[in-house]
Design goal:
Strand content: 5-15%
Largest sheet: 6 strands, parallel
Helix content: 40-55%
Number of strands: 6
Radius of gyration: 17 Å
Distance between the termini: 23 Å
Order of helices and strands: EHHEHEHEHHEHEHHH
Structural class: alpha/beta
């Protein structure tokens, strides 16, 4: 039996007010490599900027300086010269988080092959899908079972930052972002919305009581 992460699709239905002249990747998870592969996301962005000249920024909640992987993150940022394109918001309110998510062009769930990620189903990927965001994720972890490459996400090989960079480049195309995001929203409604699951459970219990 597979049980997905559940989310409130209605709560995260937002307007997607993306500024095509100020595209950014938004991250609202941990700043740990072991869980969210943060330095890999930054490396992929660095490749996209340096090799493909993609004008994109990275905005994250939390504080990178407090990350146990800070030295690795700092090394990647300076290697690719992207310090001026990385913004840390610190810890934000839910309304502010939704504001930044609303305007984000891309979200990335970078799951690496760790024990934690083997059994983890990221809460934020359900929220990203509910928000109709263009999602990049990896082929490792539970989310790879629920999402379809090219339909409601772009799925890359775990640990392949060059492939992730190419996915970032692809998603600078507004029509592709819209296609992926709209389908992600529908996948959330079909698979992750707690209203649907609670209704199905209620019907199941009522049927059992009749039997």
């Amino acid at each position: 039996m597979r049980v997905p992460i559940l989310t409130d699709a209605e709560k995260y239905e937002i307007s997607n007010s993306i500024n095509e002249n100020d595209l950014y990747i938004f991250h609202s998870g941990t700043l740990y490599d072991n869980k969210d592969g943060i330095s890999g996301i930054l490396e992929a962005m660095g490749i996209a900027i340096s090799k493909f000249k993609v004008p994109i920024r990275f905005i994250t909640t939390g504080n990178i300086e407090n990350s146990p992987d800070f030295e690795r993150i700092k090394s990647v940022v300076f290697e690719y010269g992207i310090a001026d394109r990385v913004e840390c918001l610190g810890y934000v309110t839910e309304s502010k988080l939704k504001h930044y998510l609303d305007s984000a062009a891309i979200v990335i769930v970078n799951k690496l092959p760790t024990t934690q990620n083997t059994y983890c189903f990221s809460t934020k990927i359900g929220e990203y899908a509910a928000s109709g965001k263009a999602i990049i994720t990896t082929d490792f972890g539970e989310q790879a079972y629920w999402f379809k490459n090219g339909y409601d996400s772009i799925i890359v090989h775990s640990g392949d930052t060059k492939e992730m960079a190419q996915a970032i480049v692809r998603l600078t195309d507004a029509s592709l972002r819209s296609h992926i995001g709209n389908n992600a929203r529908q996948s959330c409604l079909d698979n992750f919305d707690y209203h649907k699951w609670s209704s199905a459970l209620k019907n199941f219990v009522e049927q059992c009581s009749k039997d």
